[in-house]
Structures are given as structure tokens and as C-alpha cells.
Write a structure and sequence with these properties.
With 327 residues, the protein is an all-alpha fold. It is built from 17 helices and no strands. α3 packs parallel to α16 and α11 runs antiparallel to α13. The chain starts with a helix and ends in a 29-residue tail after the last helix. About 7% of the residues have low confidence.
């Protein structure tokens, strides 16, 4: 090969390398992951109420496994979601995991598609965990209230913080692709709503229980109800569980946190709908819509222009029959 040809090939290779690098850069996201709020009460839930902690670890698997399966099947394969993915989740929960799973390993495709949305989930889930830890700690009531407000302030200092405003969930549930997931996969959707029931139902009983043995006791009927829902998903529910419905004292004392948790759970529903919708046929279209709704409707950074924020005096009253028939 002549020197001239060799130099030409090297030039072409260098050009291709630069072109590929430029293309790759447009797909890269900054992964500015933040450490959780550090305190002496970290892991109080894991140390004092392993039964509940194991169920929360199982919930983490369920969301990731669902999103990955929806992407890889194109949301076309009903048995893959309703039977295989759901049963995988139930088996993981039944294994009583002592630690949260590595969600990046469970859902590598989804994490690459929408890492920023996943990090939004992760930080809100960390707020959930911190509040459980505080409720299971041996702090006084005054100190617990102080630390709950501290972890809220820490959370709201993040660019990934979900809005603490009350959003119009009914309006969010009328986006063009809304209900795509629950119409196609009603059993897994009811399973997701059962997760969210457990996440919000424990606050008031834990707060009212005077000591650790009482706290361990009060969650047992809730866990029994939750596992009943896993075995027989509540298909008659017409809307996701809301914090004020199951822990009204918590929702009144910490309205901002209750709103964040309800908005977090609605974001889960919205992303499930996007991943399941035929209106967004490509992964890139789904990614764009996930980030559009995240930036426009869900993040606190959009509060000043967010059309989904309810006026302070307006109450969200579900129309029709009660959303949740309790068993």
C-alpha cells in the first residue's frame, strides 16, 4: 500500500471517529447522581422492621423490570407483561430481598433511554426511605418533625426534585396516550397501584405507634392486605392510591411531601403509558415525550409555568364511584 493511500485511509478513519464521537455525545447524559441525606437514623427501617423493608426492596425490582420488559417487547406481548414479568416480580418479592436491587442491572435499556427520569425516581424514592427511617428511629416526636423537614429541604435543593405543588392528576390522566398501560395490562397496573398503596398506607400507623414493638405490630395488617393485592390484584380500582386517602394525618402535617409522593406515583403511571402507547412508536419518540412531560409537568423547576398545578383552593374530587374498594 502506498504512503498516499495509507494517509488517505487514516484520514477517513479519523473523520469517521470524530463523526461517531459527535453522534455519541448527543446521546450522552450527565449522570450527576447525588448521595442520600446522611444521618444517624439511616437504615432504621432495615434494622428495625425488616419485613417492611424487604417489601420495599421488591417494589424497586418491579418498576424496573416492568419498564425494561415494555421496551424490549414493544408492549405488544401481553403474556410477557401480565404473566412472565409479573411473576418474576412476585418471585423476587417472595425471596424477601434484604437490600435494594441494582436497577441499572435489571433495566439497562430503560436506564440508557431515560436516565434523567430514572434519577428523578431514585431521588424521590430516597425521600420515601428517609421518612420511613425517621419514623422507625428512636428520635423524639419533635426531633422527628425537625428531621423530616430537613430531608425535605435537602430533596428540594436538587434539580431532580418533583414539584411539591398539587397537580391535576385527572388532567394528566387525559393525555393522548393515557391509560394505554392499564388498558393493555390491567393486572400489572393493579400490582403497581398495590405497591403505591403500601408505600403511603404505613405512615399514619407508624406515627401513632408509641414504640418499636407497636410499630412492628401495626404494619402487619397492612402487609397482609398488600400481599392479598399481589395475589389478587385490585382490578376494581379506578385510580391510583393517594397519600391523603390512606395516611391523612401525614398528608396534613407534611402536605408538600404528600404531594411529591402522589406526583411521583402519577409520573410512574405516565411513563408506563408512554412506554405502552402505539402513538409513540419508536424509542426516540418515547424518550422525547418522557422528557417533555418530566420537564413541563413534574419537576419543581417548572412550577412557574406548569399548567397542571391546581389552584390552592381547588380540591381534586374523583368523579363517579370510589376509586378504591377496600377488602
Amino acid at each position: 500500500m502506498s504512503r498516499k493511500v495509507l494517509l488517505s485511509l487514516m484520514g477517513i478513519a479519523a473523520g469517521l471517529t470524530l463523526a461517531l464521537a459527535a453522534t455519541a455525545c448527543t446521546q450522552l447524559e450527565q449522570r450527576d447522581k447525588r448521595f442520600y441525606y446522611r444521618a444517624l437514623w439511616n437504615f432504621s427501617l432495615r434494622e428495625n422492621l425488616q419485613e417492611l423493608d424487604a417489601d420495599f426492596n421488591g417494589i424497586d425490582f418491579g418498576h424496573s423490570n416492568l419498564y425494561e420488559t415494555l421496551l424490549l417487547t414493544g408492549a405488544k406481548d401481553v403474556p410477557a407483561i401480565e404473566e412472565r414479568a409479573r411473576q418474576e416480580t412476585l418471585r423476587f418479592i417472595a425471596s424477601r430481598p434484604s437490600l435494594p436491587p441494582n436497577e441499572e442491572a435489571i433495566a439497562p435499556t430503560y436506564m440508557k433511554l431515560a436516565w434523567r427520569a430514572q434519577n428523578t425516581f431514585d431521588e424521590a424514592h430516597a425521600l420515601h426511605r428517609s421518612t420511613y427511617d425517621i419514623y422507625l428511629s428512636d428520635l423524639s416526636a419533635t426531633d422527628k418533625d425537625r428531621d423530616v423537614r430537613k430531608v425535605l429541604a435537602y430533596y428540594q435543593d436538587s434539580r431532580y426534585a418533583i414539584t411539591a405543588k398539587r397537580l391535576n392528576h385527572r388532567r394528566l390522566d387525559s393525555l393522548p396516550y393515557a391509560a394505554s398501560f392499564r388498558n393493555k395490562f390491567p393486572r400489572f397496573n393493579a400490582t403497581i397501584w398495590a405497591y403505591h398503596y403500601l408505600q403511603v398506607a404505613v405512615y399514619d400507623p407508624l406515627s401513632a405507634a408509641p414504640d418499636l414493638p407497636a410499630k412492628q405490630q401495626v404494619v402487619r395488617p397492612i402487609l397482609t392486605t398488600y400481599h392479598g393485592y399481589l395475589e389478587k390484584p385490585p382490578l376494581d380500582w379506578t385510580f391510583m392510591p393517594l397519600t391523603a386517602e390512606y395516611s391523612p394525618r401525614f398528608a396534613e402535617q407534611y402536605q408538600a411531601i404528600a404531594n411529591i409522593f402522589d406526583n411521583l406515583h402519577m409520573l410512574h403511571d405516565t411513563i408506563s403509558d408512554i412506554l405502552a402507547s402505539d402513538l409513540l412508536p419508536t424509542w426516540e419518540a418515547k424518550r422525547k415525550e418522557i422528557y417533555r412531560v418530566l420537564d413541563t409537568y413534574y419537576l419543581a423547576s417548572a412550577d412557574a409555568t406548569n399548567p397542571m398545578v391546581l389552584p390552592a383552593i381547588q380540591r381534586e374530587a374523583p368523579a363517579g364511584p370510589p376509586a378504591h374498594q377496600h377488602r
